Amino acid sequence: xxxxxxxxxxxxxxxxxxxxxxxxxxxxxxxxxxxxxxxxxxxxxxxxxxxxxxxxxxxxxxxxxxxxxxxxxxxxxxxxxxxxxxxxxxxxxxxxxxxxxxxxxxxxxxxxxxxxxxxxxxxxxxxxxxxxxxxxxxxxxxxxxxxxxxxxxxxxxxxxxxxxxxxxxxxxxxxxx
Length: 177
Ligand SMILES: [Zn+2]
Hints:
The protein is of the alpha+beta class. The protein has one domain (12-164): Peptide Deformylase. 20% of the residues lie in helices and 30% in strands. It contains 3 helices and 10 strands. The chain has helices spanning 23-40, 124-137, 149-152; strands at residues 45-47, 57-61, 74-78, 81-86, 89-95, 98-107, 110-115, 118-123, 153-155, 168-169. It has a 4-stranded mixed beta sheet. It has a 3-stranded antiparallel beta sheet with strand order 1-2-3, with helices on both faces. The longest helix is centred in the N-terminal third of the chain and has 18 residues, at 23-40. The structure holds zinc ion (ZN). Residues 95-97, 132, 136, 169-170 line the site of zinc ion.
């Protein structure tokens, strides 16, 4: 299946709050997300609104990423809700919907997420990615979470292969992923 086009900021749909996913739409939207994520290769997560589906579904897969020694493999989270969050850390994020920028964003370092099929516990890089994607479901972009637009937002260097400081969110980090 062909990869879907990713909506780019300032598309208004990226700022809308997605509605709870209904059983009849979950499979098709999840397939769209997974196909698109796989087609992009470097992508560690994607939220349904980025494809124009205003339903509460995200996919995250940080397996194989050097910054994620611990992870839950491929996650398809339907109607996810963060029920426990602890720790706090600033890290660099990128976003496929804002391809030219990265930013320092403060996130919880450990979370528990309830979703349609159970609960998942996540830490570190994967937890950051999940928080980034769930934000998309509420119309929140990573730029909305930076402490200082002047100090914490960076123009992405042209993608130049391996090396660099890494990052997360759904985009390709400054270096790879
Ligand atoms: Zn994003």
